[in-house]
Amino acid sequence: MLMFPLDGMMMSPASHRPVTPTRQHAGMPTVRSVFLSDIHLGTRACQAGRLLDFLREHPAEHLFLIGDIVDFWSMSRGIQWSPDQNTIIQKVLRRARHGQKVVFIPGNHDEALREYDGVSFGEIQVATEYVHQTADGRRFLLVHGDEFDQVTRYHRWVAVLGDMAYNGLVRLNGWISWVRRHLGRSGYWSISGYAKRKVKKALQFIFDFEHAVIHNVRNRGLDGVICGHIHWAAIKEVDGLTYVNCGDWVDSCTAIVEHHDGRLELIDWDGVVQTPPQPVEGALLDAEPNAIPNAAAQAKRRTTQILTWRPRWVARSVALKRGAN
User: Is there a domain that residue 325 lies in?
Assistant: First the structure.
């Protein structure tokens, strides 16, 4: 029952709130790589303002855009393009011009751009997939993931209807969030997140997707995968390989960053710089006391990420200890 909240955390899609900086930009260390997916530019649900804040706080050497960056499906029904979305395009182009490696891997919502595989536009490389080697030598397949979704591949009309329904839920969440704020209720309750956690078919879809992707990666002799598509952020071990999902910038506002030693960190962006990263592999029971934030909410998020990155036997042993207490 605890598995899904640990693998991906839903954040509020409420209107953008200014970032409260926790460090000075002048001394801010860069990360090696930033991985983003499912931004859905061109839609009302796109959290462009929050993404801009995230990008300002995370300069990097590499920027990987892993599909559904521009939502041509929704734009065919009506375009919702904000000034913040314009700024995102300008910022990405500026990063590419200034020497940052930018790779764009189209997804199913921007699949028309797959015809330009191998072409570079404004120093941005387009690729249907990409193999990225982390600083510690691990090799990850970067792919959007829709090719492992049987509904998207073989029942496109069902996928389009599902997309319309999902956009409706996200819009409804905006109204619910507004009501909760005016009632003084803290926190955010996501309808789509609740459905993914509670509806058995949705859970099975996520499991099937993860194992299909990992099976493909294993056949290629790689160490893991970094993907998107299902709007469910995670870093975890699946069948001995590392499965990483970037989440989205519609409902959860999540991203993956790689640090200069190769560690991967899942960021839940709520306007506060997240806690220091931990290794993908290895137990994290020896964390220093001063590494744990004082705020209860930050501590809760940190615990969630630690459990996500623990090997299965460590998570199991922690659960047994809790049961004994």
Answer: no
